[in-house]
From TrEMBL:
Keywords: Aminopeptidase, Hydrolase, Protease. Transmembrane segments: none annotated. GO terms for molecular function: aminopeptidase activity; metalloexopeptidase activity. Pfam families: Peptidase_M24. The lineage of its organism: Bacteria, Thermotogati, Deinococcota, Deinococci, Deinococcales. Coiled coil: none annotated. PANTHER family: AMINOPEPTIDASE, CYTOPLASMIC PEPTIDASE PEPQ-RELATED. This is Aminopeptidase YpdF (MP-, MA-, MS-, AP-, NP-specific). It comes from Deinococcus marmoris. SUPFAM superfamilies: Creatinase/aminopeptidase. The keyword Isomerase does not apply.
Length: 388
């Protein structure tokens, strides 16, 4: 725990300008960015702070023992009666000119304060530091979330490797006659056998979609796979708090077929080429919408419909992890597609073809941005998988 927290707290502190203090206010784990940045959390009301003098935490006396054992890199003080009085005293000692708070109108992963909590902290800061400016931490927090430390990359790679093993073990068990619901249950069981859990989403586990039933984020049905069907599987597996996100498409052979029909293979090759195009465009300093445009144009040039979503998103503590997005500029106010890729960011690449009931396919890979380009973290699906 302390390894991750120490790496992230140091990374976050490096985002500060002279005279800034970054304040994380949380109660009962209300701010989800606290475990991201500090590698731990508190039960009682607490304030976590990043300052040039080092990371700090003001926690309740009942939480203090945990921090002594598991967060030695934090300068920790405990309070027994008045959290507000002790925090005001500490803030006055540090005397920052600017205080960053975790609120955002654009990025939900950076919006860690409820309206009521914001008002409470604002009043407290007005009392403690009447001359200090209050600013939001969206730019700093999105960057800290997006750029992975070595420990985060280790956890992500392990989650991705398990997902590749997961699909390798799943494919031989698939056959016509199984229902979407049965396949999802098998996928949940297989994840448990591998010592992990899938992201349950809103539908009880991985997405399991027979193309002719309909392509959308939906729960599995009792419809059984038939020969000639395309089956799309989208799975995110967790390892030590970090998630992969990999999708695969399978064609179920009809009697007398030894490979998928040419039409289905053309769709797969178009998606494969779109992933190639996005991968080639993904470099440090390139805004996400330019990476998206490369994949989008490739599919349009092949005569397929325009992608109905972003080409890729970041993964990490969440399957959709906020920050920069490899997406189009459809919304002029949306900040995420304009953000630039940076070394250490981990993205999905998933330029899809959605034409249901005509052949629809999703192939989704995971990549990390390097110093001069990108590198695959997942083993690619090089051909349209088949089953009977």
């Amino acid at each position: 725990m302390s390894i991750l927290g120490e790496q992230k707290a140091r990374q976050a502190t490096e985002q500060l300008q002279d005279g800034e203090l970054w304040l994380f206010f949380t109660q009962e784990g209300s701010d989800p960015s606290v475990p991201l940045v500090f590698g731990t959390n508190s039960v009682g009301k607490a304030a976590f702070m990043l300052h040039a003098s080092g990371p700090k935490a003001l926690v309740s006396r009942i939480d203090a023992g945990h921090f002594e054992q598991h967060a030695a890199f934090l300068e920790t003080r405990s309070y027994s009666t008045s959290f507000e009085t002790d925090l005001i005293d500490w803030l006055r000692e540090l005397s920052p000119r600017t205080v960053l708070l975790n609120f955002s109108e654009d990025d939900i992963r950076c919006d860690g304060l409820t309206h009521g909590q914001y008002l409470a902290v604002e009043r407290l800061l007005t009392d403690a530091l009447p001359q200090a400016r209050i600013e939001n931490s969206e730019a700093q927090l999105s960057r800290v979330r997006a750029i992975k430390t070595p420990e985060e990359l280790r956890r992500l790679q392990q989650a991705i490797d398990r997902t590749i093993t997961f699909y390798d073990r799943l494919l031989p068990t698939l056959h016509a006659g199984q229902t979407e619901r049965q396949i999802q249950a098998r996928m949940n069981d297989l994840a448990a056998e591998l010592g992990t859990t899938p992201d349950m989403g809103d539908f009880g586990g991985p997405l399991v979609l027979i193309n002719r039933v309909g392509m959308s984020h939906r729960a599995p049905t009792d419809t059984a796979v038939e020969p000639g069907d395309l089956l799309i599987l989208d799975t995110a597996l967790e390892t030590e708090g970090y998630y992969s996100d990999i999708a695969r498409t399978i064609y179920f052979l009809k009697d007398g077929e030894n490979e998928p029909p040419e039409r289905e293979q053309r769709v797969f090759q178009a998606i494969y080429g779109a992933i190639d195009a996005a991968f080639a465009a993904l470099k440090p300093g390139v805004p996400g919408h330019q990476v998206d445009a490369a994949a989008r144009q490739h599919l349009l040039d092949q005569g397929y419909p325009e992608i109905q979503h972003s080409t890729g998103h970041q993964i990490g503590r969440h399957v959709h992890d906020g920050g920069a997005v490899l997406g189009p500029l459809w919304d002029s106010k949306r900040r995420a597609p304009r953000l630039q890729a940076a070394e250490g960011m981990v993205f999905t690449l998933e330029p899809t073809v959605l034409m249901s009931p005509d052949p629809s396919m999703i192939v989704e890979e995971n990549v990390v941005v390097t110093g001069d380009g990108a590198r695959y973290l997942s083993q690619r699906q090089h051909h349209l998988w088949t089953a009977r």
